[in-house]
């Protein structure tokens, strides 16, 4: 049996945990945990660094003791709740969950929110420890209450640098549980980016205080809110000018091809009313809307606010303004005029996964397709023609034809797809 004990956020070890330590033949843990445990000199210790060597040593120890016919109690010390983005996953994969006796402590996430007096059943938790921080950044851009488990190269400074354009507040929690060194510091993204935070950071809370209300109704399901109950919303769900909006039939297929999801970044280029941007944000993606008209910029912002989502709006003309943006996972291009081929080319060079383009004019289709293919994408498309039911006087209904639209999409082949670190994003129901 391997006993896994959660520790490290200030609470003393329970008597049963101390009893397990007293009977252990081998104890595995970080150096600080081993030093704090007060182990006798006779106990074998393994300092936990990269998991694989430690797991190999545990397996060798168990096998040797089993061959000698002796009981070989092993204790693994871990921070907080070891089943929450912790070592329980690796131990269960190697030895099986039935060989584990897990005794969790309080997680750093729970501790940090408790110190602020905030509930966290509506928070999203994302790990950037040993992972590409872009997923954590995109979750922070999209969600109003996020906890980020940090690591080297993915700490408060990196998060702050990526969130400079946002209205977020970062709460950096360091040395949680240490009566002398514990700190919780509330900083702006710019302040976080300018500092060296050392190696004591446990977790960073990213808060949009305008959208995080202490008087929010009680939750039934923990974590991020569920995805939208409906999409491809009717045009009258958005403010728009002279019907200059991506029609819901086109939007439905565009969303299917874009596949917006939490942890990803989507561009809506030539956003107009921002209907595509808003719908992508409702699916949990981080979204940047690019719009060249000032009244369009305000319209996108108003539509995002009306639907309770966060869309970062960039005022300027594509492709020029695109160079200042982070690389997207998916791009929707809904405008462009004569610059359309250049815009699609610029987007395709940067997109990690897919580019979707809506085109009303037949003569622009070949140029768009050529731009996608030249960038290495597999290209496909359809001509969408729809007719809606329209009432006439006398309780009569006719079909009213909408203007046809070409929808083309390019998908980066898997063999050439930009590698994305697999980052686990969890709600907080654990």
Automatic annotation (TrEMBL):
The residue ranges of the Tetrapyrrole methylase domain are 1-190
Q: Which domain of life is it from?
A: Bacteria
GO process annotations (BP): cobalamin biosynthetic process; methylation
**What pathway is this protein a component of?**
Cofactor biosynthesis; adenosylcobalamin biosynthesis
Q: Does the keyword Methyltransferase apply?
A: yes
- The keyword Ion transport appears for this protein: no
Q: Which UniProt keywords apply?
A: Cobalamin biosynthesis, Methyltransferase, S-adenosyl-L-methionine, Transferase
Coiled-coil residue spans: none
- One GO molecular-function annotation for this sequence? protein methyltransferase activity
InterPro entries with a match to the protein in the record: 4pyrrol_Mease, 4pyrrol_Methylase_sf, 4pyrrole_Mease_sub1, 4pyrrole_Mease_sub2, CbiE, Cbl_synth_CobL, Cbl_synth_MTase_CbiT, Cobalamin_biosynth_MTase
Task: Read off the Pfam families from this record.
Answer: TP_methylase
Q: Which NCBIfam families does the UniProt entry name for this protein?
A: CbiE, CbiT
Record-linked PANTHER family? COBALT-PRECORRIN-6B C(15)-METHYLTRANSFERASE (DECARBOXYLATING), COBALT-PRECORRIN-7 C(5)-METHYLTRANSFERASE
What is the official name of this protein in its record? Precorrin-6y C5,15-methyltransferase subunit CbiE
> What is the species of this protein?
Streptomyces ruber
């Amino acid at each position: 049996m391997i006993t896994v004990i959660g520790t490290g956020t200030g609470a003393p070890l329970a008597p049963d945990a101390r009893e397990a330590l007293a009977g252990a033949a081998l104890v595995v843990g970080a150096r600080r945990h081993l030093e704090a445990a007060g182990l006798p000199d006779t106990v074998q210790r393994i300092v936990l660094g990269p998991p694989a060597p430690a797991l190999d040593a545990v397996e060798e120890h168990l096998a040797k003791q089993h061959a000698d016919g002796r009981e070989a109690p092993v204790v693994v010390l871990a921070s907080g709740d070891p089943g929450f983005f912790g070592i329980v996953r690796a131990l269960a994969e190697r030895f099986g969950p039935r060989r584990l006796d897990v005794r969790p402590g309080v997680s750093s996430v729970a501790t940090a929110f408790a110190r602020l007096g905030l509930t966290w059943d509506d928070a999203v938790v994302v790990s950037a420890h040993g992972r590409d921080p872009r997923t954590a950044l995109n979750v922070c851009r999209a969600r109003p209450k996020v906890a980020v488990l940090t690591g080297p190269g993915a700490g408060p400074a990196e998060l702050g640098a990526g969130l400079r354009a946002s209205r977020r507040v970062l709460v950096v929690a360091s040395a949680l549980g240490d009566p002398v060194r514990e700190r919780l510091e509330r900083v702006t993204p710019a302040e976080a980016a300018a500092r060296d935070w050392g190696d004591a950071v446990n977790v960073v809370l990213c808060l949009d205080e305008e959208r995080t209300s202490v008087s929010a109704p009680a939750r039934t399901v923990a974590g991020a809110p569920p995805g939208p109950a409906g999409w491809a919303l009717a045009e009258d769900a958005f403010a728009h000018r002279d019907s200059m909006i991506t029609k819901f039939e086109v939007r439905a297929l565009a969303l299917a091809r874009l596949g917006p999801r939490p942890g990803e970044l989507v561009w809506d280029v030539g956003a107009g009313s921002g209907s595509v941007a808003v719908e992508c944000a409702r699916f949990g993606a981080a979204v940047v809307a690019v719009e060249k008209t000032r009244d369009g910029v305000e319209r996108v912002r108003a539509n995002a606010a009306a639907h309770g989502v966060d869309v970062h709006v960039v005022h300027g003309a594509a492709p020029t303004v695109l160079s200042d943006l982070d690389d997207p996972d998916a791009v929707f291009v809904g405008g462009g005029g004569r610059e359309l081929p250049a815009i699609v080319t610029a987007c395709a060079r940067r997109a990690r996964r897919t580019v979707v383009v809506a085109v009303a004019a037949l003569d622009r289709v070949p140029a768009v397709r050529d731009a996608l293919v030249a960038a290495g994408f597999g290209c496909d498309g359809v001509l969408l023609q729809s007719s809606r039911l329209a009432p006439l006087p006398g309780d009569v209904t006719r079909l009213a034809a909408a203007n046809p639209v070409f929808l083309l999409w390019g998908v980066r082949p898997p063999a050439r797809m930009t590698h994305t670190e697999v980052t686990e994003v969890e709600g907080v129901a654990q």
